[in-house]
Every structure is written in C-alpha cells, then in structure tokens.
Predict the 3D structure of the following.
Amino acid sequence: MTHIVTRKCNKCGLCPAVCPVDCIVKGNNPVYDIYYIDGETCIDCGACVAECPISAILTKDEAIKLGLEVDVIDNIEFFASGPGYGDK
Ligand code: SF4
Ligand code: SF4
C-alpha cells in the first residue's frame, strides 16, 4: 500500500515537513501543480494524514474506493515520468 495526495490538496505546504522519509514533493508546473507522494519510498506512517488540514491525503485503497484512481495514477506518474524529486 501507499498514501497519495488527492486533487483536494490546496498546496498549504504543511505535509512535507512531517514526512520521516522525505517523500512528499510539490509540483511546480501546470501539469503537476499540487503535492505528490512517492509510493516507492512512503512507509505508510500516516503522519501526513494527521497533518493535512483538509484531509487531502488518503491511502491508495481509500482513494480507489472513492473513485479517485486518476489521483493514484498522478502520484505514480509524477515520480515515474514527471518532474519527481527534480521539482524539490
Ligand atoms: S504516510 Fe508517512 S511516509 Fe508516507 S508520505 Fe505520509 S508522512 Fe511520508
Ligand atoms: S497538508 Fe494537505 S493540503 Fe497541505 S500541501 Fe499537504 S496534501 Fe496539500
């Protein structure tokens, strides 16, 4: 499993600071313009979920149950073929 940032993200910037493995990155371009979680590195600690004031971070399974597959794919593609850690 992993956690993902959903499109609800308002870019407040609070979550990266609490991630113990530093795997939350802000996108800085028109295609990727919210925050994203690197599922290959995320250890599912849940710290970012507690930090997010608008509950924009879900587990992958929760997101799929809510029909947010597109957001799951966006988080994967941001690191696989998008800017990834280069946007940090
Ligand atoms: S669940 Fe933990 S490890 Fe995963 S992105 Fe959130 S803070 Fe980082
Ligand atoms: S804390 Fe929530 S709203 Fe703020 S940047 Fe992170 S995911 Fe987005």
Remarks:
- Residues 27 and 33 are 5 Å apart (CA to CA).
- Residues 3-87 form a domain with the Alpha-Beta Plaits fold (CATH 3.30.70.20).
- The radius of gyration is 11 Å.
